[in-house]
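Just curious: can you write a single protein's sequence together with how it folds?
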Amino acid sequence: MKIGFISLGCSKNLVDTEMMIGLFEKHGFEIVNNPVKAEVILINTCGFIESAKEEAINTILEMCEYKKKHCKYVIATGCLVKRYKEELKKAIPEVDLWIGCNDYDEFWKEVTSIIPQKEESKDYLDYQERRITTGNKTAYLKIAEGCSNHCTYCAIPMIRGPFISRKQEDIIKEARKLADNGIEEIIVIAQDTTKYGIDLYGESKLASLLKELEKIDKIRWIRFLYSYPETITDELIETVKNSKKICHYFDIPIQHIANPVLKRMNRHSDGESIRKVIRKIRKEIPDVTIRSTVMVGFPGETKKDFEVLYDFLKEVRFDKLGAFTYSKEDGTPAARLKEQIHPQTKKSRYNKIMKLQQEISKNNLEEKIGNTYEVLIEDISFDGKYYIGRSYMDVPDMDGVVFIENKDRSKEKIGKFVTCRIVDVQDYDLIGQLL
């Protein structure tokens, strides 16, 4: 049978989807990209915030329309299903199978309950059998499941359960296999990468893990995402500083800087400790790129709290910044707080942050003009005039890209690392010339 996949949400969800693809391939299914050609459509959903839930439900409904004319089965999996399975079953009966993210141990058993197979199998999702969907050179490496931070606005612990680290030897085994299959960029992910190993080994082992990954000959770039400020250690900073493979890039989701807001969020950092770790990283690694995310409109955020955040962002000048408005999530402590912020106020504060960051980003990028960088070429522009790639400063689908003049309009350098000099900037992207 032919099966098509749609993966929504974060890169951690994408790894789950890649394992599902590998399992279906193992059992003889043909993977297709066009839903019109699919006999089975599987949607891996996100249920993190309201906009993600709306996207997931709309996608499911759209795929159910294909079922009327083309496909035989629609399967919905993932976080949204885990959170609202019974409600969804009643609301969208056209879906043949609902599998929540905590039910993946029974994944294939559930699939074969609606799509009979010649032989019974108790197969489960396997990291070793993933089908990489992020190109021939880049892959995500998930090192843990769940989260135990219990931020008051976040439903992830309810959906995914507590933070559970994978064994280091299993992670290294997977990374070696990825390298043997041509992967040269590894992106380490978890809900909170800096807590890796605490549950297994009694202390954070992220730095140790990164050092082991660095020993894999065929890996050229290593980066890690979602590092919380309170668990960024001196050892981790030193590891990044002294490495020839680990990108000088920190992704630090601070969410806010005003102490009253951080306290209500149940974040484990305060404003001064956040400032301190950023200063430390920039002092030790001068060419570092720091990305962060902030939330505006959290219940009880006063005008003064917002101004503290705004002034901080103006001062610290993050290289990359994502911002979002607070979303009231069912079952979270923050949803019960009385001081909910008016939607227009949240939108206004968000717009001010993004306008500020646009100016900061432009100025930061202009400082790169004249510099030389190694770039991984991943594509060419529609008209063929430019190669499109990323430097160590750019995470796929999160950050900008580097456009490099392609005089021959050739595809020869796709999938290769090249050296270029930056000559201009455009919005959030760099323009380079091949050396």
